[in-house]
């Protein structure tokens, strides 16, 4: 594989991206599974003409693997658990079937109204009674999904709105009272608050229920909130279509899937289960605490001439502020995002980075998940996280669909030793070579699970690992 930032991936001399059909390995489980599609205009999907136009306008030429294999299941009304690496297009995989279904229902009800002589289309109730509910862990992601839904739904009778902590409650209540929201995107805490304290929202008509970034939801302790929403406010799961989307697939998610999805749900896995995206070059540099700033400066200087975008992760707010100040003093175009900032400041920081006003974004993990900031060329782990899933999510901010990204991580021997073995696994699963100093940390460790990177195909799924996962999946008391 040859790969450099910003270029298309090549494999054995041929350009490779998700718009081609080759080499992507996948696994679909479930006795009712539907066959996969190769184009958004496949009749099996039956997507509305205007929706197809919007998809093409958004630059989506061909479906990515998770869209090819996942969408037909949802369109057919089946529940799904979809696992696919970050940046693989999971959002559209669930939004398009939901939007299409809402548009179809709207036009069916218009025809019925015409037949019956009724004049109004939508029910004229006070408050919101949405058809689609999407739960997501962060406010930034909620805004993004809702924005995507409105973009795909442009010119169609479908509207999306996001509710999340940090947004003005009064604004949300006003919007919900108007009752014109078809797809509600929400963080669990704010949704529970709205449902329990106010009378502007009911979930009695939910036809599609999606939990996005399920692994992150679990890590943030949101599962009990989700359970409350499901148990107290949603119609029974048998009466709706349910989907879980996740980049990784730990045991807790498998358990959650069993509980929240209808039995017989379809399980779609793309690529290496829980592995790092193969579209990312992962580099690990040995750097002590004292050396980190110097090395950062060197990286920033190298990038400056190229106008490339850099996302830097620190583990604490204090460190984020310190690094922000350090670069700001040297007149770099830098912005910062962490949870001590107001929602307005965070949105502005993201906007600046998105528009190129700033080319460096310093962030705590709050920005790690789900954020779809366009065109990040390099992710730098100034501090490595303690957990490997967090690492995979962080580096997943680069290397978006079909375009190679790059990550550099500062490995501090004093603090990061515990992560060494998992890092080797992540690098190996992304088909990259492991630096010698890192292998030394893990010498003697059992690596029988991992095939050598020469042997493994690009995008090659480690069959052994997936098989193991399925075994777990079927163990009733594995949790
Ligand atoms: N079929 C496609 N072709 C090209 N780009 C796509 C396609 N589907 C999604 N994208 C783009 O890929 C990026 C990542 O998508 P996203 O849904 O955020 O990934 P995930 O949720 O899997 O991390 C977005 O910028 C999105 O617009
Ligand atoms: Mg996502």
From TrEMBL:
Species this protein is from: Orchesella dallaii
Pfam families: DEAD (PF00270), Helicase_C (PF00271)
UniProt xrefs under InterPro entries: DEAD/DEAH_box_helicase_dom (IPR011545), Helicase_ATP-bd (IPR014001), Helicase_C-like (IPR001650), P-loop_NTPase (IPR027417), RNA-helicase_DEAD-box_CS (IPR000629), RNA_helicase_DEAD_Q_motif (IPR014014)
Keywords assigned by UniProt, alphabetized: ATP-binding, Helicase, Hydrolase, Nucleotide-binding
Enzyme class label: hydrolase
Domain spans labelled Helicase ATP-binding: 71-267
Enzyme Commission no: 3.6.4.13
Short motif (Q motif): ranges: 40-68
SUPFAM superfamilies (alphabetical): P-loop containing nucleoside triphosphate hydrolases
Protein name: RNA helicase
Top-rank taxon: Eukaryota
């Amino acid at each position: 594989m040859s790969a450099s930032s910003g270029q298309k991936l090549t494999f054995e001399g041929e350009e490779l991206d998700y718009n081609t059909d080759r080499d992507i390995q996948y696994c679909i489980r479930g006795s009712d599974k539907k066959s996969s599609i190769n184009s958004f205009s496949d009749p099996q999907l039956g997507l509305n003409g205007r929706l197809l136009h919007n998809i093409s306008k958004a630059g989506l030429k061909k479906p990515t693997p998770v869209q090819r294999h996942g969408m037909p299941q949802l369109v057919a009304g089946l529940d799904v658990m979809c696992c696919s690496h970050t940046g693989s297009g999971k959002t559209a995989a669930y939004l398009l079937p939901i939007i299409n279904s809402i548009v179809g229902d709207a036009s069916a009800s218009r025809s019925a109204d015409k037949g019956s002589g009724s004049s109004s289309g939508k029910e004229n109730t006070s408050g919101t009674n949405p058809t689609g509910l999407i739960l997501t862990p962060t406010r930034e992601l909620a805004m993004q999904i809702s924005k995507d839904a409105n973009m795909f739904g442009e010119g169609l009778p479908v509207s999306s709105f996001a509710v999340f902590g940090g947004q003005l409650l009064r604004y949300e209540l006003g919007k919900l009272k108007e009752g014109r929201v078809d797809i509600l995107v929400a963080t669990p805490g704010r949704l529970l608050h709205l449902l329990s304290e106010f009378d502007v929202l009911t979930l009695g008509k939910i036809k599609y229920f999606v939990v996005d970034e399920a692994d992150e939801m679990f890590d943030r302790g949101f599962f009990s909130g989700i359970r409350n929403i499901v148990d107290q406010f949603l119609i029974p799961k048998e009466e709706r279509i349910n989907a879980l989307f996740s980049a990784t697939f730990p045991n807790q998610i498998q358990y959650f899937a069993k509980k929240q999805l209808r039995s017989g749900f379809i399980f779609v896995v793309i690529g290496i289960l829980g592995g790092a995206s193969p579209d990312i070059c992962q580099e690990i540099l040995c750097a002590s605490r004292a050396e980190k700033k110097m090395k950062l400066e060197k990286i920033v200087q190298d990038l400056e001439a190229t106008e490339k975008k850099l996302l830097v992760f620190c583990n604490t707010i204090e460190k984020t502020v310190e690094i922000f100040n350090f670069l700001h003093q040297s007149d770099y175009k830098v912005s910062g995002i962490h949870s001590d900032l107001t929602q307005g400041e965070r949105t502005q920081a993201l906007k600046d980075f998105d528009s190129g006003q700033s080319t460096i974004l310093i962030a705590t993990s709050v920005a790690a998940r789900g954020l779809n900031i366009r065109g990040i060329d390099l992710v730098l782990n100034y501090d490595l996280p303690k957990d490997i899933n967090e690492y995979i999510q962080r580096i997943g901010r680069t290397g978006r669909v079909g375009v190679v990204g790059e990550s550099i991580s500062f490995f501090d021997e004093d603090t990061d030793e515990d992560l060494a073995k998992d890092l080797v696994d992540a690098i190996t699963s992304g088909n990259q070579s492991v630096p010698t100093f890192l292998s030394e940390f893990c010498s003697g460790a059992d690596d029988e699970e991992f095939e050598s990177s020469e042997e493994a195909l690009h995008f090659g799924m480690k069959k052994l690992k997936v098989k193991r996962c399925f075994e777990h999946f079927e163990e009733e008391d594995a949790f």
